[in-house]
Amino acid sequence: MHQWAPLAAAALLANGAVAQFNMLRFACSQLVVDRVDPLVNPGLRYTPHLHQIVGGNSFNLTMTPVEYDLAERSTCTSCSFNQDKSNYWTAVMFFKAKNGTYHRVPQVGNGGPQGKLINNGGLDVYYIPSGKTTAFKPGFRMLAGNAANTDDSKVSSGNICHRCWTSTSDTPFVGGAPCSGSDTVAIPQETRCKMIRQTIIFPTCWDGKNLDTPDHKSHVAYGQGAGATGGGACPSTHPVKLPQVMYEVMWDVSKFSDQSIWPDSGDALMYSMNLGGSAAHGDYVFGWEGDTLQRAMDSGCNLNNACPAAGLTAQTPEQYNACTIKQQAPEEVDGWLKAMPMGDVALKA
């Protein structure tokens, strides 16, 4: 595995020279869009806000670590690698129209210097190593971001950000490294944006003891520096370097580009907490089979390619797109809705 310095890594990401270092980058299609959250609200149907979930099909209302073994219980995964039965989820973006109705913003596949990934909704997942990297252990979970935050200044723009694409094509790639340049914590509120890329970067330093903590954050910490750099040096309180997990979601806002349907005041685009980009967050529950992730990090496995040295096999888009589950909190989530799904079951407008 190549060891790469943060600044060099950022430059490589910006210039698309990915061949000079290795990282996993793969597609995860939509498993389900559902109002459940086994990390923050275990056992609760109709949680306070809606999520889009990807990964292993054992995703459930309650997944108690370590006894709930995702890799063992899942029979398929909506992610590229057969061996990854982890679950990844984020809040859902909504468009609020002038007439007060809401519409879920669809997600599309993401391109970029590393090539196009094919997603049926969902998101792209990265595992970026830096130096000696220790893979997550069974039962490991964590949370990035704060679903209740309303203050952009309380968010590191190097870890959670949004980028405006003025075309429905992401080729050629727009801008530099993730969460750099003109990227913003806030969701861009402009009709010129045809797609909005959301980036969520997780902490890379672990205390080496706790698989989770009550706040789902205290057992991990960000290293020195920010951005998609592999994480930087770790503090003494959290000395174990983890792979850097990063989510990228491409929200297709092109169907809402008619200014006449935008509200006369207030934001038109928001997350399912009825809040803006400062409340963006991501949930992670580890579920790789055996030691495949550690072997992938040690063997220099790259992008979404099969990697025999680590025992990684890649599915076709048709295979991972076919892995879906039914809502466990059944309600309408598509089309125009009378209200955002918060509290009562959502109804069509």
TrEMBL record:
It holds the Pfam family DUF1996. The keyword Signal applies. Keywords: Signal. InterPro entries: DUF1996. It comes from the Eukaryota. The keyword Lyase does not apply. Residues 1-19 form the signal peptide. Residues 37-288 form the DUF1996 domain. This is DUF1996 domain-containing protein. The lineage of its organism: Eukaryota, Fungi, Dikarya, Ascomycota, Pezizomycotina.
